[in-house]
C-alpha cells in the first residue's frame, strides 16, 4: 500500500480511539467521577512515569548513546523550560496560592497542561511513526494498536479532568480535537520536512523527557504524594502501571 495512504489510515485509527476514550466518560456518572479525582490524577501519574521508564529513556539512549549524552541533558532542560513557560501563562497556575473555590478551577489547569504535554508528545510520535511506516508496515500497525490503547486511557482521563469544573464546550472540543489529530500533525510535518536522522529523534525525545518531568514534578507529584496512602490513589497508581504494561505487550 502507498505509504501516505497507510499513514492517513493509521492516524485516523489513533484519532478514533482518542474520541472513544473521551466518549467513555459519558457512560459514567459525572458526579461520582468528580469524586474520583485522586484516582484519575494518580493513574496519570504512574502512567506517565511508566512511559518515561519503558519508552522514552530507552529510546533516548538508543538514539543518542553514551557519546551524545550531553545532548540529552541540554534538550531535557530546554523541554523543562518550555513547559515551565507554558505553565506560567495558563490560568489558575499556582495551586498553593488558590482559595478552596479556585482549587477546583485548577483541575482545568492540570488537564490543559496534560493535554499540551501529550499533544507535543504525539506530534513527535507521529514523526517516528512515519519513519517506521517507511521501513515496515507490520511494525507500524503494531505500534498503532499499542498507541490506540494509550489514547483511550488519555482521552478518558483528560476529558474527565476537564469536566471537573464548568468549562466551555467549544474549548473542550477544540482541545480534544487537537489531542486526537496530534499524531497526524507529526506525520504531516515528517512528510513535509524530509528528515530521518537518529540524532534528531534523540533530541526530540530528550525534550519530551523534559516536558514529562516538569509536568510530573510540578503538577502531579505534589497532589498525588500527600494522598499516597489513600485507597483511591493506590488503585489509580496500579491502573496506570497495568494499563501501560498491557499497551506495551501488544
Ligand atoms: Zn501549573
Description:
Helix content is 83%, strand content 0%. The radius of gyration is 18 Å and the shape is globular. It has 9 helices and no strands. The model has no long low-confidence stretch (mean pLDDT 88). It has one domain. Helix 3 runs parallel beside helix 9 (231-249). By secondary structure, the protein is mostly helical. The structure holds zinc ion (ZN). Zinc ion (ZN) binds at residues 87, 93, 109, 218-219.
Task: Write the SSE topology.
Layout: H1 3-24, H2 30-34, H3 37-64, H4 69-89, H5 100-135, H6 137-162, H7 169-192, H8 198-224, H9 231-249
Helix pairs in contact: 1-5, 1-6, 1-7, 3-6, 3-8, 3-9, 4-8, 5-6, 5-7, 5-8, 6-7, 6-9
The structure holds zinc ion.
Zinc ion is lined by residues 87, 93, 109, 218-219.
Amino acid at each position: 500500500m502507498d505509504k501516505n495512504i497507510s499513514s492517513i489510515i493509521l492516524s485516523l485509527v489513533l484519532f478514533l480511539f482518542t474520541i472513544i476514550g473521551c466518549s467513555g466518560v459519558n457512560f459514567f456518572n459525572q458526579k461520582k467521577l468528580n469524586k474520583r479525582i485522586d484516582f484519575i490524577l494518580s493513574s496519570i501519574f504512574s502512567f506517565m512515569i511508566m512511559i518515561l521508564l519503558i519508552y522514552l529513556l530507552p529510546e533516548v539512549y538508543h538514539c543518542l548513546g553514551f557519546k551524545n549524552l550531553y545532548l540529552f541533558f541540554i534538550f531535557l532542560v530546554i523541554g523543562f523550560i518550555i513547559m515551565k513557560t507554558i505553565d506560567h501563562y495558563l490560568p489558575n497556575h499556582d495551586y498553593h496560592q488558590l482559595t478552596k473555590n479556585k482549587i477546583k478551577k485548577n483541575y482545568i489547569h492540570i488537564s490543559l497542561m496534560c493535554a499540551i504535554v501529550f499533544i507535543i508528545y504525539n506530534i513527535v510520535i507521529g514523526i517516528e511513526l512515519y519513519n517506521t511506516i517507511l521501513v515496515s508496515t507490520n511494525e507500524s500497525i503494531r505500534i498503532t494498536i499499542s498507541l490506540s490503547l494509550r489514547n483511550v486511557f488519555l482521552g478518558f482521563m483528560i476529558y474527565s479532568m476537564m469536566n471537573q469544573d464548568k468549562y466551555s464546550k467549544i474549548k473542550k472540543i477544540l482541545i480534544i480535537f487537537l489531542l486526537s489529530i496530534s499524531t497526524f500533525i507529526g506525520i504531516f510535518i515528517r512528510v513535509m520536512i524530509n528528515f530521518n536522522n537518529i540524532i534528531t529523534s534523540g533530541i526530540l525525545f530528550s525534550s519530551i523527557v523534559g516536558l514529562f518531568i516538569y509536568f510530573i514534578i510540578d503538577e502531579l507529584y505534589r497532589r498525588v504524594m500527600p494522598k499516597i496512602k489513600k485507597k483511591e490513589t493506590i488503585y489509580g497508581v496500579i491502573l496506570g502501571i497495568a494499563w501501560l504494561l498491557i499497551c506495551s505487550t501488544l
